[in-house]
Specification:
elongated; 158 residues
Length: 158
Amino acid sequence: MGTYLAYDYPLLSAFWTMLWFFLWILWFILLFRIIGDIFRDDTLSGWGKAGWLVFVIILPFLGVLVYVIARGKSMGHREITHARKRQQEFDAYVRETAGGGRSSADELARLSELRTRGDLTEEEFLRAKEMVLSGSGTGPSGSTGTGPSAGTGAAPRA
């Protein structure tokens, strides 16, 4: 009866078409998420993955329904775990790229150690310390660019 009404009223026909179109898109999104979850799951063996994949592809409606009923809850946990892992990797990458891992205190401690060993003169130490404190001397590797032979023309001491 509902489909006959759709032919009598063009707006209802357009709504009916949009509803079916939306359901097909929803179906494919669910199908691809399940296939992705099958491959992402580390607890399944290769044969288990192959079995679920064949079941989902050969009998798609029944396969997806059974998969969601049987493994739907753990599917959400795997998605959250995967998202957290990706976020941690991204945070580590940003920390490594942005900061180089060294703070000003680390740089000052390193400069002080170089001065006490005699690798830096007092003048070079003060110049490097000023650069570290002003924030302009640290490069991507965390070095200040001042060392025994960095721009002073002096040869390293033995």
